[in-house]
Amino acid sequence: MSERMVPRAHTVRLELDDEPGKLLNALDPIAEHGGNLLSIFHERGNRTPRGQIPVEVDVEATPERFDRIVSTLRETGVNVVQAGAERYSEELTVLLVGRLIETDLSDTLTQFEHCSSASVADVSLTVADETDEVSSARIRLAAHAGETDRALAAIHEVAAEKDLTVISPLTRGDSG
Amino acid sequence: MKLAIMGAGAVGASVAELASTYGHEVTAIADSNSAAIDPTGLDTDAVLTSKRTSGAVGDDDPDAVLAGTYDVLVEATPTTLGDANPGYNHTVEALERDRHVVLANKGPIAERYDEIRTSERDSDGRVLFDATVGGAIPVLTTIGDLGRSNVTAVRGVLNGTANFILSRMAAESLDYEHVLAEAQDLGVAEADPTFDVDGTDAALKCVILANVLFDGGYALSDASVTGIREIPGTALQLAAEDGRTIRLIGEVIDDEICVEPRLVPETGTLAVSGTQNIVQLHTEHAGRLNISGRGAGGHETATAVLGDINRLS
Q1: Does B238 touch chain A (CB under 8 A)?
Q2: Where, in this chain's numbering, is L-homoserine bound (chain B) (predicted)?
Q3: What is d(CA A123, CA A105) in angstroms, rounded to the nearest whole number?
Q4: Taking the CB of residue A95, how many other CB atoms lie within 10 A of it?
Q5: Contact B268 A175 (CB under 8 A)
Q6: From A7, which residue of chain B is nearest by alpha-carbon distance?
Q7: Which run of H or of E encompasses A61?
Q8: Which of A99, B79, B166, B205 is buried most, with the most CB atoms less than 10 Å from its CB?
Q9: For this structure, is B51 an active site residue?
Q10: B8 among the known binding-site residues?
Q11: How far away is chain A from the Cα of B261, in angstroms, using its nearest Cα?
């Protein structure tokens, strides 16, 4: 499977004029070129020195499509300050299920970072209600290029010690 | 072709029911206790009615079937693990009599593949088993057409019951136990769903795929298997917030066999819903092929069995 065909997460930092519709316009090329919008961080309270609003967009796309998204953004006049900085580091999302609180989630995450040499970028947690002791967390990690399999194996090991279940993404081959 | 059908459950009965439309004749049907045998051809409607009303397919001895008149043995007894009997013994005995065998029963092909191939080599009969993987989806036939050395990996959703449960849990924000009960009411899950929800059924199919791709050497004990019982509804919600969902994915990659719940893009190819199955074949020269459809059910599985029988004609 060609590397160019494998979708992965990319981060794009944009700077937008504070005018209605600017954000929406900026997002159009993403859908148009088959990108999957993962998250938008719209820092409305912040201003760049040029008076624009910084926006961070996470997009899942094949590198080929991502290139097209970035060039279209630039062609339409969007100020792309940084794109593809994450290209050689791979994003990885896993779900973690089990007694997450009782087994010290923050220690678990520290161990993930320590053992997998990946960094935890984002954690969403759903704590169990009283009838069910199992909690779930979604963890987004940034791993070094080509090391997602190794990072996943390390995560599985750490989780197994705490009797937690890891639900991993598809990595080898293709993620489709 | 004259068919002897071992097993009169949903698959065996459907093969009997559809055989004549494919131009074949049924000379014997047996379940574990009874049999109906007629070398000149059975009235399959009458036999199936008898099975429904009295519980017995006929007055003949099931042990006499394999010695009778038939070209193809259809092995549709329930899948068993370990020694894979009675399916394995039926298969070998028919081969010893130089008859063809078409299996819908996964046990013998997953657990004793090498022995069956050895028996086949000494026989004038051939063994086909497209129905054992993906029901009506022609997975093994497609691999045969591509040439197994051109298939680099196989990945897929191979159990409709587990997939139904996961897709309902995601769509309705319900917990496992709740959806399982619903699936049982609908007849999608069996009273004892262990085989499906623990991943065993999907794993057997992956083992069969590995045996076909690598010319034998694999059994269920070589597969790493995790089921879906432990997945809480909250995990599916967290996945959905991120544009993903969870599917029970079976993989045969780099001679490793693995079945486990995986995160997949919600709108991706592998996120089939309900009882649908999908198989992705990664090929050396032609990229990825996706084949999907109904992976279980009497008529669906019988369709694959009758396809194999046609290939033997």
Answers
A1: yes
A2: 190
A3: 10
A4: 27
A5: yes
A6: B265
A7: strand A53-61
A8: B205
A9: no
A10: yes
A11: 6
Q: From CA A26, how far away is CA A31, in angstroms rounded?
A: 10
What ipTM score was computed for the predicted complex, to two decimals?
0.84
**Buried b / exposed e along A123-133 (16+ C-beta atoms within 10 A):** eeebebeeeee
pLDDT digits (tens, 9 = 90+) for B226-254: 999 999 999 999 999 999 999 999 999 98
Locus of tokens 């917990």: B175
B155 and B57 together in one domain:
no
Residues B97-154 have pLDDT tens digits of 999 999 999 999 999 999 999 999 999 999 999 999 999 999 999 999 999 999 999 9
| Rounded Cα–Cα distance for residues A35 and A12 (Å) | 12
Is B82 marked within a binding site? no
Q: What CATH code would you report for A89-167?
A: 3.30.70.260
CB contact under 8 A, A126 and B270: no
Residue B51 annotated as lining a ligand binding site? no
Strand partners, A8: A61
From the candidate CATH numbers 3.40.50.920, 3.10.28.20, 3.20.20.210, 3.30.70.260, the one assigned to the domain spanning A3-83: 3.30.70.260
Segment holding B264, helix H or strand E: strand B256-265
Distance CA B133, CA B277 (A): 10
Q: Do B241 and A97 touch (CB under 8 A)?
A: no
